[in-house]
Specification:
2 copies of one chain form a homodimer. By secondary structure, chain A is α/β, with parallel strands linked by helices. Chain A contains 9 helices and 15 strands. Chain A has a 9-stranded mixed sheet with strand order 14-13-12-11-7-10-9-8-15. Chain A has a 6-stranded parallel sheet with strand order 3-2-1-4-5-6, sandwiched between helices. In chain A, helix 4 links the parallel strand 5 and strand 6. The longest helix of chain A is centred in the C-terminal third of the chain and has 15 residues. The radius of gyration of chain A is 19 Å and the shape is globular. At the A-B interface, helix 4, strand 8 and helix 9 of A face helix 4, strand 8 and helix 9 of B.
Chain lengths: 305, 305
């Protein structure tokens, strides 16, 4: 029987990904939404989270899709009310708040799942399996997309805590940290800020082990989400955000669609709740915090949507 | 019998604190120094770290005092060469690199000690003991000092990774995270950068639970290192960087000197090596990374030494 879930924060990512994934899931029944601005046809809609938690004791799991800065208060309230919690990426505005949520969930025997949707892309698991016994000699991430296309008018991405180009870049880092056979750490970074904004619109990162990354949010035309890895057994490339895999320049797996990522996240959440366990890996967020700690700041033209 | 130790990075903090602490210690014998620019009278002096590691197998412990950005390479080389490692604060330029060192030390059965000297201040342990069963209703850190006095000409503090005012501020955060009975997380911050510098010269932080902090590196005249805590049992104040304690406005413990901090660190290191354990608490550094991730950036007058 499907387990009831509430979806909180009905914005673009909820409509584009969470609602279709839940509609197609045999594990879950979307039983309520909570949002000041959005709702889903035919689903019980609340504007106040505390009211929903009180009115619907039959809903034992909540999925939080709002931006990272307001998310902590909802996650804390949900755990205090005995609900399992699934967090969109990044799992919080700070590392310390996620540590607190981890301790709270563990103390109450509840599931906390810090999701990284790009890790569920079709070709990530085969890439990880292939790399497991290889030596990585070099890797380069190219993550170039158009913020106007993916976050139209969403000024919060340029406000403190909105992460700027690290909002997509953390997807690349979530794949990198999943597939590399040994961890790396940042050694230097340059961060390019629009003169009128609080978060970077582009970033170049250098890690130990010959790993580099370029993130840019100003790419019009074709979008690029590639991770190219050189190994002692030849090159591997992940393209289309982890959805297509090449080994030695020959495509061996993949689809162009990212529509499988969120169904896989919800299937994983169902398994975590059934097992009574949590899944919180902060390593992609640690790399972003490290970049914002260690990075050299450059300034460029103002940016407006 | 005293255990032999090498001191690496003979700059201001080594001369001011590490060398006197080791000279007074019954646990340790300063057996070598490694530095391109400094040495200690009467002590075997090397300019190359690999050469010292190869030449002095009798030295099983190294204490690393150079700035955080170059420190990782030394720590990694020391652990690879089977030496125990003591790290000045902050323990690294990135969180990820310290995670890597932790895993490396654990894998080799070596001691890694990420020191926080301010936690060894005279009044920190009694403050922690008093707060353990109290409810904290509010706390405020005031950490105002003169960078020209404490870091004369040290431009690295304003370079990427130098941490700026968080270099002293992390001392306050190391005390805060030690004494509070429950963890807090950053909720907002403002960071003030000199127009010509890469790291902030002042910062205002707000945490959960009514905890706030103001750090400023432009304080001439009297210097201020206070932590004031309101509780359900009245106020507690730590002054002089954790060296003096007031309860209910009455001083109950303390000295004005910080000269006890480094001897206590080296005594703790001796105990950790004897016990075969490590001590790496990254929570002060997590709060700094969170502030640099979530903080709003302001710009002020250029700063020059």
């Amino acid at each position: 029987m499907a387990r009831k879930i509430a979806l909180v924060g009905i914005g673009k990512i909820a409509r584009d990904q969470h609602v279709p994934a839940l509609a197609a899931s045999a594990d879950w029944e979307l039983a309520a939404t909570v949002s000041r601005s959005g709702s889903v046809d035919g689903i019980d809609a609340y504007t106040d989270f505390a009211e929903m938690l009180a009115a619907r004791p039959d809903i034992d799991t909540v999925s939080l899709c709002m931006p990272p800065v307001p998310r902590y208060a909802y996650a804390e309230a949900a755990l205090q009310a005995g609900r399992h919690v699934m967090l969109e990426k990044p799992p919080g505005a700070t590392l310390a708040e996620v540590h607190t949520l981890q301790a709270m969930a563990a103390g109450k025997g509840l599931t906390l799942f810090a999701t990284w949707h790009s890790r569920m892309a079709h070709a990530v698991a085969p890439a990880k399996a292939w790399l497991a016994d290889k030596t990585v000699t070099r890797a380069h991430i190219t993550w170039r997309e158009d913020v106007r296309k993916w976050h139209p008018g969403q000024d919060w991405v340029f406000e403190p805590g909105g992460m700027g180009v690290f909002d997509p870049g953390i997807n690349a880092l979530s794949i990198l940290t999943e597939i590399l056979p040994a961890p790396v750490h940042l050694t230097s970074a340059t961060l390019t800020f629009p003169a009128n904004r609080q978060t970077p619109i582009a970033a170049d990162l250098a890690f130990s082990g010959g790993v580099t990354a370029e993130f840019d949010w100003r790419q019009t035309g074709p979008q690029t989400w590639n991770i190219e890895v050189d190994t002692n057994a030849g090159p591997l490339a992940l393209r289309m955000g982890g959805n297509r895999l090449e080994l030695g320049g020959v495509e061996v797996a993949g689809e162009n669609s990212i529509m499988g990522e969120y169904p896989a996240l919800y299937a994983r959440m169902a398994q975590l709740v059934a097992d009574g366990t949590s899944d919180v890996d902060l390593s992609p967020m640690v790399h972003v915090a490290d970049a914002l700690t260690l990075g050299r700041r450059l300034f460029t033209d103002p940016f407006d949507f």
